[in-house]
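Researcher: Hi, I'm a grad student and pretty new to this. My advisor asked me to get structures for two proteins we've been looking at. I'm not sure of the right format, so I'll just paste the first sequence and hope you can take it from there.
Model: That works fine. Here's the first sequence with its structure tokens right after it:
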Amino acid sequence: MRITTSFLAIILSAGMLRAQQTFTKMFQSPPSYSFNLIELPGHNILAGLAGTHLMDNEGYIEHSSYYYYSGETYGTQTLRAAGSNEFYFTTVTAYPPPTPACDQPVIGKMDSLGSVSVMRRYKLASDSCNHAPGGLEVLENMGAISWGRDQDFFALRTHSDLGVRWTKRIYRSGGFRFIKELPSGDLLAGINMDTAGVVVARMNADGNFLWAKSYIRPRGIVHDVLLEPDGSFVVVGFTDSMETTGLIGPPPPPSFQPKLFMMKLDSDGGCSGAVAGRALRTSGTL
């Protein structure tokens, strides 16, 4: 779900072994998609809050960086660590006039002070003109993969220099929620689709689908996945759509009672210990 609020309260607590003092900070910031926080050596924090901010271990900002170009480049959307002092990030730019306004994804690399070493904009060929990136994963070969947010059903994979390796756009109603790299080099994707509910798919390194299976139909939605050492997957999500949860728009009707679910799948997408389409465990309501 797109985050539209301009205020973010961050509550951080360190592990009990370090006994680091907890703190609460509130920042006024333009929207960002992921609001990632990355702990650095020495317990400083790199935060993606529209810009990129280096904080000390008490939450005070020591350095800030922004990536604006003639008002057409938005703030940092997703931030991922790639090495000891290398971080990948996504943002989005709109092509300026006379080209019609068209949001296109950007992937870049920077250090912890926000100094950018490479930053590439990708113009996707499609009949749609809104391609803001959602998630981002750094791959084993130091390439990256990103995908559209919400119902923008595309994925983009790069080489280590951020040059395009491949792009995929699916002309169906849905979108990627996550894409994870498996030890074999294949990719595991979580997809939310109308009527198909939760979809889990396996792709090869070139983005070609090897299999795709749906669960929690018709309105289930997937949130995240844990890759187990034995090759199985633990998938979590909700049994019903969150489009009318009351956060935006009118409150949901009394009949809207989604549950959290946790589902374990084998390497071929089969449910382990449960009938396909059912959750292993459910608890709580939204």
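Researcher: Oh nice, that was easy. Here's the second one.
Model: And its structure:
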Amino acid sequence: MKKLQLILLLFFVSLLTFAQTTTLEEFLKAQPQIKSVEKIEGNEFFSVTFEIMVEQAVDHSDLSKGFFQQRVFVADKGIENPVLLITEGYGADYAARSRYLNELSPMLNSSQICIEHRYFGESWPEPLNWKYLTVGNAAADHHKITELFKKYYAGKWINTGISKGGQTAVYHRTYYPNDVDVSVAYVCPLNFGVEDGRHESFLRDVPGTAEQRQRIEDFQLEILKNRALIIPKLKEFSAQKKYTFQISIDEVLDYCVLEYPFALWQWGRLTDKVPSVNDNIDELFEHLMIVSSPSYFAIEGMEGIKSFFVQAAHELGYYGYDTKPFKKYLSIKSAKKYLSKIFIPEHLKIKYKKAATKDVKRFIKTTDSEILFIYGGFDPWSASGFEVSDKNNFLKIVKPGGSHSTRINNLPENQKKEVKIKLEKWLDIPISIE
């Protein structure tokens, strides 16, 4: 027994010594699951930045399904410093930019590891099988990378993400609660269906004033009432942009109009810019194209994010549209099941599964894991935001009038202070928030 204890002690000492005497580049090149290592120009906040490709199982529950390579960006601040794990929900091209710096990294004085989500960017399995694009497999990807880098980094771990990336961070925490010490999830929903149902009532009753919401609805109606004048403009606009669709141009107009209030409030556009119904048709059309462009519904527009729509239809859920005020003027009879009609490749038949949502809901109800949620008060995604108890392991911040661009750095001072106090308590390190 003593011999076994001695062997284990020597093993852990050797690991510690290895981390302390090896540079990050040497560590990366020594890991068999890392298939390529490229030093790139990173933000000057870090000492060195690498773009690497990590081998991952296509299906973590069945290794016979093969492997693919996942793109990861590693920006180093030091072995003993905290590590910020960015669980991107989409592609991660932005992390290759030399100026990229997550807002939490300087707050925490941390290293930064950004993981591109499977089936996005350069992280695709071949041959492609949509069956393995699951919440569980993505969480396992993040777990494997966390395990890998814990052999090098000795500080606190924080995972984070924005929007779908925030969902990804919470799902990672759900299935591997001990991987990180704290989670920071920005503007992320927990939807309970392909058309969740809460966003429609939110848009009717919550953001802005009653007068602002009425101005928005009047604008939508004016566009639809002038369909005969708008459709030729929409055809010309789409032709110039080389957009093609899985639906008719009349349906495209319907959905641009239905999407309009969600898009307007999501990104915090000024409601005083909404045209009056007395403005000319050209001004009405130009404004609609700025706020709710047909690019969102175009085959070309969804090319880089089609994986998201597959996930939404399969596990993540999405939002629906309120057609009641516009029924008289719409060409569609119903907007039900629009996700599969517009966004899902025609050959795919996807059935929504609630298991992952149930897992995360159960986790949030019972966990002692420490999680910070941040939302914008006017962001429609806050309608399906995570509901948490007043337990000390949670903090939910809702910025008054905030949009989907709500971050810690643009919170009011009192909310910044609240975040600082909570993070310092949870992590037991100084937090710098300006």
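Researcher: Is there anything I should tell my advisor about the second?
Model: You could mention this: The CA atoms of residues 133 and 311 lie 7 Å apart.
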